[in-house]
Structures are given as structure tokens and as C-alpha cells.
Inverse folding.
DNA sequence: ACACATATTCTCATATTGAGCATAAGAGAG
DNA sequence: CTCTCTTATGCTCAATATGAGAATATGTGT
């Protein structure tokens, strides 16, 4: 038996950019793994404990190698460490601990390196995009399937608990939709078996993979909502989206995704893309302008139809004045 | 050479309770380590990759063993992984990755197990307590030392950068104090050498421990602000306090620290203890009552001086109605 | 000149927040 | 029993923030 490390630290990056009003992430192809070959995955790689000085540096190296992209703003998301999170552990592989990061970049054309590509966020989590109203997939697929799951609860109390959980997660039964609860929603869909990963990872008799509180067999394994990813990468993506939506409120991170100057409409569309909501245009403008987040440059954009818009830039001073300034997403709008 | 793991996953817990209007954490004594013997440390222990099913379970086991305390609400904080974070790495120890958790409990008397004890949070971070106004140590020790550090910057631009950083961290030069920036503040004090750990860990000629952006020798090694802890445990504590202060705003976590029924004053004092601020009593009451966070029980508290206060309980329904409800700490008050 | 499209400015009703006054209800001193 | 002290609770008022939308400005293309 050769000496192999008992533990492997995996580093994963959710690399986000917004282009054409779509939030995108950088994905790579991944041919191995006992599941379906050639799944999409997050750029990732193991830490070399002897060489890598910091986790961020190691991550940046893997991303550079796999996608050619250089990371700027990077933030740690979460560390996942459940046993058998990576099915290779069952085959004698090391215990995998995976540290997920969120990175924000301005989308750059990929130099065709490897199989890296930009993918729309909502291909993976289609129920998160409310920009055109309540998403079809929620109404049509998720709600009925959840209702079946609720009803299948064992006893009155269990049904009530399940209903409360479903209502809170998906904004039903009078509960308002909460854009930041992305991970909770994915987790529920996973447990219920509504996403492909839930079915794939379920204990087909093995018995130990049931890591959730209740070991549920997937009940609606016919549904495959959203595009799946390798391992738990879609779960990581859900964490990232939730975190980013929350962060928008109280930190001016949005400017990491924008060019140096931009129109207020581009700023708004970028926020909307991430928030998955429409905002009231006039009020949004008031918020960012009076909030001191941006300042006009005096220059105008080349006309694209109507009256030309002024170009703005991020007001760096806001970090001194209101260190907790964000673009604040108070309410949602139906129309444009 | 015996087989030793190349990586060790350390699990640390910042276990918080509030008693007598003081936020406390559970600390243990720790006799080893190449530094000062018998330092205070967070309850912690390594993950057993072959046995522990989840990170939380492993953590709970170590905490139980070292303190006898059973964890309830647990939340992951951050994963630290810089090389040589643990100085034993230099002596051939495994690469240490440390995952920090925040746990909230109701303070229970310790059954004398081991050397566990409750310690006031602000013994370690005295500049964070503004309940009696701007803390003395900030005015008297930190501000002047930081000013010296700022002036020592190499060149005009460096001085300006340093000043901005110091101002933002510590609410000087017109910048308002931000209670959540706890970790940034500790980090700055560490780099500048104003806390004992900064001096202890500094590269005394070795040259590789300088992990910050600038490899600063500690400049004010005479000062020892606050009580130090083992390794980077005080940094972890700072992360925990910052996170908890932030979380109070948008999640009703405060009730994890309170008994089932409580007066509004106790609730307020508990929030104040964590926030390190005084709040306006009438407005606080309005906030939590109208916000639907609590409901009266009709019972009164045994008199402790003035008019008896009504006992309230947490309104669990708020989780359905406003899933993002917190106690909101809008502004600070000078008086009581 | 005219329709069209988008940008920008204002207005207005309604919450929310910050601050402080006023009143209520107990305990203890005289 | 009354006065004073103490804490609880209720209420007012101004300032500010938010949600919604009307009105006006300034381009492009016909």
C-alpha cells in the first residue's frame, strides 16, 4: 500500500461575471468521477500542503491553469466536510474537505484554454430568476412536487413541519420570497430528490450517504430541475449566489463586476441579474446617487436608442463615509 | 520516518453566552506550544478523517470532552490555512488547516471539568466595548500608536493609505465607528504589533512568517492590548464577534442566548452586550414588539426595584412572516 | 415636425427611525 | 399614608427613507 494522504483539501471557485444582463460562472468539463462522464464542474484542485503558502494562492493557481483567468476579488464561502461527500472516498480515496470560494471578475474572452466556458447562472438554478415574474418552473414543477412531498409526511406534525419549511424556502402560503435563501432551497430540492444530484447521491442500499437529518429516498426522481454539476458543485453555487445577494446589500461589491465607467442602467441591470429581481428605476437611481456610491463623469454614452445616458464611476470615498454601503435591494418590481 | 498525516484539520469553537450583561466565551487552558506555557485557548481538536462523519459532530465531541458543554446553535465561521499559522509546522508538524465555528448557548455552570472557564469577551478585545462611551484604551493607547504607525509610512502615498485604513477600522477622522469590523481591527493591531500575538509570531529573522501583504516588524512591541490567546485564537474570536454582530441585524439569533421568557430589558442588555453599544430603550421596545419578534406572556417578573416588567417570549411565527427579522441595531446611544 | 425611446427630475403618500416627554406601578423611607 | 426613587410602558413629533409614478429632457430615425 502506497502512502497516500488521509485528507485532501479541495479548493473550488465560483467565479462570477455579468454580461448581457446574465450572471455567469466559469465552468470546466470534468471527465472522471463515477457518475456521468463529462459533467460540468467548478474550477478546482487540491491544496499542496508542502508548497502552497496560502489557500487563496493555491486556488488562484488552479484557476489560472484550468481557465486562464486571473482572480481579483476573492472571498471564502464555506468549508464542506461531510464524509462521502466525494463518492471516491468509498473507493478508498482520501477524506475530502472542500473549501469553496467566491470570486468576482469582469468577463473576459477565454483563450480557448481547456474546456472552460461561461455559463449562465440560472441554467443551474432556474427557479432563482424572478426578473420576468414568478418563474415558470417553480409554479409548474416545484410547487406541485413539494406539495406531494409535504403530504407524504408521516403524521400531522411532520406534515406541518414540512409545509412550513417549503413555504419559507419558496415563498408560498403568505411567506414572502427571500432572494438570499438560495442554499436552503437547493438543499430542500436535493433532499426531496427534485434535482439530479439528490437522486445520484442517494443511498441505493448502501445506507451511509444519508447525511441530512432525515434519510429520504428521492421521491420525485423523474424531475431533473436545472442543469446538474459534478459532486456538490451546484450546492456550492447555491451558497455563492445566496452570499452574493446578501453582500450586495451592505458592501459595494457590485463594482467588481463593472467596467470603470458605466451608465446607471447598466449598474441596475447588473444588480438585477444577481438579485434575480426587477427594481424601480427612479428609486434605484436615487439610492445610488444620494447614497454617494457613484459620481457622474460628465461624459455621455454613445446613443443606443433614446436620450444618451451619463457615464458614472464608483465613488471610492464612500468607503470612508459609509463603510457599510451597498446598493440595497429593498423591494421588487413587476415591470421594467 | 513514521507515517504522519501531511494535513491536520483543526476544529475550533467560539462558544458564546451572555450573563450579567457580559458576553462571555468558553476558554480552556493549554499547556503545550512553543510559546508561553499555559495560555488560554478555544476548545478545539483535530478531525479524525476515518471516523468523524461530519465536521460539526467532531467539533461537538471535542467541546464535550474539554468543557462538558453541549452545543446547540452552531455556525461555521471561517477556514484558516496559511502555512505556518501553527508554529509547530516549522518543527515538522503537519500542515494545519483550522476550521472555526461559532456556537451560542445559555451559560451553564461548568462542572469543573478540565480547565474550562467562562471569560468575558472584552478581556480579549477591550476596544470593542463602547457601552460606556469610547473605550479608554482606544483613546489612550491605540490611537497614538496607530498615529505613529501611519507617520512611519514610506512616502506620502503610503502614509495616506495607512491613515485611511486606520480611520476606517477605528472610526477616526470623521469615519463612523462600525461595530462589525472587528476582524479588520484585530488584523491591523496584529500587523502593527500592538497585540501580543503580532510580536510573538513576527519573523525574528526567519523570514517566512510574514503572511500579510507587507512584512512589518512589530513596531510597538511594548504594548500588549487585551489578553492574548494561543495561536490565532484571538483572531478567530474577532471573526466570531464581527459575524455575530452582523447576524443580530437580520436573524433572531439573540434568542439562542436567552431563557424561554425574559423581560425586554434583559433582551436589550443582551443585545447591547454583544453589540458593544447602548440602545434607546423605548425605540428598542418598539422595534422588537412591532416587529413581531416577541409576545407578552401576561406574567410579570418579581420586582427588582421599580415597576415590575412583563415577561416576554420569542415569537416563533416571525420566521414565517419575516424570515429575515433581526433586532436591528440602527443607532447608538450615549446614556442608558 | 413627428413619433419613439430612454434618461432624468420631481412629487406625494406612507413607513421607519431617532429622540424625548409623560404616565404607570412597584419598593422603601419618613 | 405620602413622598421619593426606580424601572416599565405609552405617546408624540420631527427627520428621513421608501415605494410608486407623473412630468420633463434629449437623443435617434422618418
Amino acid at each position: 500500500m502506497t502512502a497516500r494522504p488521509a485528507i485532501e483539501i479541495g479548493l473550488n471557485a465560483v467565479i462570477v461575471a455579468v454580461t448581457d444582463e446574465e450572471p455567469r460562472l466559469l465552468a470546466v468539463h470534468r471527465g472522471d468521477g463515477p457518475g456521468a462522464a463529462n459533467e460540468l464542474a467548478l474550477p478546482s484542485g487540491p491544496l499542496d500542503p508542502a508548497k502552497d503558502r496560502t489557500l487563496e494562492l493555491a486556488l488562484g493557481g488552479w484557476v489560472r491553469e484550468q481557465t486562464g483567468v486571473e482572480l481579483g476579488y476573492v472571498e471564502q464561502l464555506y468549508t464542506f466536510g461531510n464524509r462521502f461527500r466525494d463518492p471516491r472516498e468509498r473507493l478508498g480515496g482520501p477524506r475530502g474537505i472542500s473549501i469553496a470560494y467566491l470570486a468576482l471578475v469582469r468577463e473576459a474572452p477565454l483563450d480557448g484554454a481547456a474546456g472552460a466556458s461561461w455559463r449562465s447562472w440560472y441554467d443551474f438554478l432556474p427557479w432563482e430568476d424572478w426578473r420576468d415574474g414568478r418563474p415558470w418552473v417553480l409554479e409548474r414543477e416545484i410547487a406541485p412536487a413539494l406539495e406531494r412531498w409535504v403530504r407524504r409526511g408521516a403524521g400531522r406534525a411532520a406534515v406541518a413541519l414540512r409545509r412550513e419549511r417549503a413555504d419559507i424556502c419558496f415563498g408560498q402560503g403568505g411567506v414572502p420570497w427571500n432572494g438570499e435563501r438560495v442554499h436552503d432551497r437547493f438543499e430542500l430540492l436535493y433532499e426531496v430528490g427534485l434535482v439530479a444530484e439528490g437522486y445520484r447521491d442517494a443511498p441505493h442500499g448502501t445506507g451511509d450517504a444519508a447525511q441530512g437529518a432525515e434519510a429520504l429516498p428521492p421521491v420525485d426522481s423523474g424531475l431533473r430541475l436545472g442543469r446538474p454539476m459534478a459532486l456538490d458543485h451546484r450546492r456550492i453555487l447555491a451558497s455563492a449566489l445566496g452570499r452574493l445577494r446578501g453582500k450586495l446589500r451592505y458592501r459595494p461589491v457590485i463594482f467588481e463586476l463593472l467596467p470603470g465607467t458605466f451608465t446607471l442602467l447598466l449598474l441596475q441591470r447588473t444588480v438585477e441579474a444577481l438579485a434575480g429581481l426587477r427594481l424601480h428605476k427612479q428609486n434605484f437611481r436615487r439610492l445610488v446617487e444620494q447614497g454617494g456610491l457613484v459620481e457622474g463623469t460628465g461624459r455621455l454614452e454613445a446613443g443606443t436608442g433614446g436620450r444618451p445616458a451619463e457615464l458614472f464611476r464608483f465613488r471610492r470615498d464612500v468607503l470612508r463615509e459609509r463603510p457599510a454601503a451597498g446598493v440595497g435591494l429593498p423591494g421588487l418590481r413587476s415591470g421594467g
